[in-house]
Amino acid sequence: MNYKAFHKLSYGLYIIASEFEGTRSGYIGNTAFQVTSSPPQIAISCHKNNDTHGIILKSGVFSLSVLKKEASTSLIGEFGFMASSEMDKFAKVKTEVHSTGAPVVLDSSLAWFDCRVVQTLDVGSHTLFVGEVAESQLLSDDEPLTYEYYREKYKMLAPRNAPTYIEKDKLTEEPSAKPSAPQPDQTGMASADPDDEEEYICAICGYVYRPDDGDLAAGIPPGTPFSELPEDYRCPICNAGKDYFKPMG
Ligand code: FE
C-alpha cells in the first residue's frame, strides 16, 4: 500500500461543534461531505475518543463551519489540537445558536450548516454521523481552506484522531538534499555548529520549527537556531511554550 496516495484525496477543513446540557465541544475535522441534496444531508467522521463525539451522540445535533483559507492559527491550534474537556475553546470565538441549538462558530468561517443527526454508522475508530441540514448561511465569498493547503503551509501531519491520520514512517520520504556538513574553514575550525540546524517538533500539535525557515510571523529570521529563540516563544499553531518542543533527532 502506498500511503501517499491518500494525500491525493481532497478535503476542506471545518469546525464541528455541538452542545449538550450546557457543555459545548468542538473540533476541527477535514472529513465532511454532502451526501444528498434532497433533503440536504452532510456527513462527518468523528473519532470516538474525541470529546465532541460523546456530545453529538447525546445531543443529536452538530454545526459545521467552513474555514477560510487564512484562518487564525490560534483557532486551528485550539480547536484542532486541544481537548474540549481541558479548555473552553469557545471563550475567545464569536458564536451563534440557530434552530438545532448547536453552537455555530463564526470566526474564520465562510459558511455554516446547522444539522440534526439522522443516521450514525459505526466505522471502527470513528462514527460517521449523517446530519440533515436544518439551516445554513453564507458569510463570505473568500476562498475556503483546503486540507492540502494547510498541510503544505504548516508541513504537518494529520492529528492522531483524524480519519486521514497516517503514521509518519508509513509516508516513505524521498531522500532530501541535506545541507552539506560544515566544512573546515581556513583556520581549520568548523564554521557552523550542527546543533544550530536541528529541527524541533511541537509535542502538542506536530508543528516543526526549522532554523532554515525561522518563523517570520513571530519576527524570527531564517537561520535562527532553536536555542536562540526567545524564552517566551510559542508554537504558532497551538500556542504551546518552548518546553513542549523536542529535537527531531
Ligand atoms: Fe504546537
Q: Note poorly predicted spans.
A: 174-191
Q: How many domain regions?
A: 2
For the largest beta-sheet, the strand count, sense and barrel status come to: 7 strands, antiparallel
- Small-molecule binders: fe (iii) ion
**CATH T-level topology of the largest domain:** Pnp Oxidase, Chain A
Sheet with the most strands: spatial strand order: 2-1-5-8-9-4-3
| CATH architecture descriptor text of the largest domain | Roll
What would the average pLDDT be, to the nearest integer?
A: 85
What is the oligomer described by this structure?
single chain
Shape: globular
According to CATH, what is the class of the largest domain? Mainly Beta
Question: How much strand?
Answer: 25-35%
User: Which H/E pattern describes the elements?
Assistant: EEEEHEHEEEEHEEE
